[in-house]
Write a structure and sequence with these properties.
Order of helices and strands: HEEHEEEHHHHH
Shape: elongated
Oligomer: single chain
CATH topology of the largest domain: DNA polymerase, domain 1
Number of strands: 5
Radius of gyration: 29 Å
Number of domains: 2
Structural class: alpha+beta
CATH architecture of the largest domain: Orthogonal Bundle
Distance between the termini: 109 Å
Length: about 210
């Protein structure tokens, strides 16, 4: 009889212990899940100027500038190509300098001045570079064109500012606008249609007009 009572008590203790373990584990698991959920929901407010207009966003901290422009501001002229900074389709200008917008976070650009293809010109009032691309047929499918044009505008500004490239010969003289300089500086913008010679002609014409 004593053995049976001891066995029954052991079973009771086991059940109580198991129930307590399940309750504690469940509560801990719920806490972990809530913690993970909160981390996924972290956002930040960011303010910058896009094409001359002040814009305020509340975005996930992981949102790239490219996705902020396309998905939040609906400026879809800037294209998502490789999403790895290798094709240049997402090129925009930030404070006058060209960047791959897929490689930078939106929250890193608080107070910056951002220019996309939509901010360069509009139908009936094209930017000289846009007009030159049309004139020289500097695009075929057109997917890379916004990035090509933004990059080309920035390239001429880089040369004007006498910023050397890998092919610049004389670092003591004003950098010249040459086919070699343009090809080198535009090498980060890939055109899968192969309109490179036409793109070069368009950039040279704009450079000569400015000169």
């Amino acid at each position: 009889m004593q053995t049976l009572i001891q066995l029954e008590m052991s079973r009771r203790d086991l059940l109580i212990s198991s129930a307590a373990t399940v309750a504690v584990t469940g509560a801990a698991g719920k806490a972990v899940a809530q913690s993970a959920g909160n981390e996924m929901a972290y956002t930040s407010k960011v303010s910058f100027t896009v094409n001359g207009e002040s814009r305020d966003l509340d975005v996930d901290n992981r949102t790239t500038l490219l996705d902020a422009l396309r998905e939040h501001l609906h400026l879809t002229g800037t294209k998502k190509g490789c999403d790895h900074g290798q094709c240049g389709a997402c090129t925009v200008m930030v404070d006058g300098h060209r960047i791959n917008s897929c490689l930078t976070l939106a929250v890193m650009h608080e107070g910056d001045e951002i220019t996309t293809i939509e901010g360069l010109g509009k139908p009936g009032d094209l930017h000289p570079m846009q007009a030159a691309f049309v004139k020289h047929d500097g695009f075929q499918c057109g997917y890379c064109t916004p990035g090509q044009i933004c990059s080309a505008v920035a390239v001429l500004e880089e040369i004007k500012a006498n910023i050397p490239s890998h092919v610049t010969g004389d670092l003591t003289a004003q950098t010249a606008v040459t086919p070699a300089e343009i090809r080198e500086r535009m090498s980060g913008n890939i055109c899968r249609c192969g309109a490179y010679s036409n793109i070069l002609d368009a950039i040279v014409e704009v450079a000569e007009t400015k000169a």
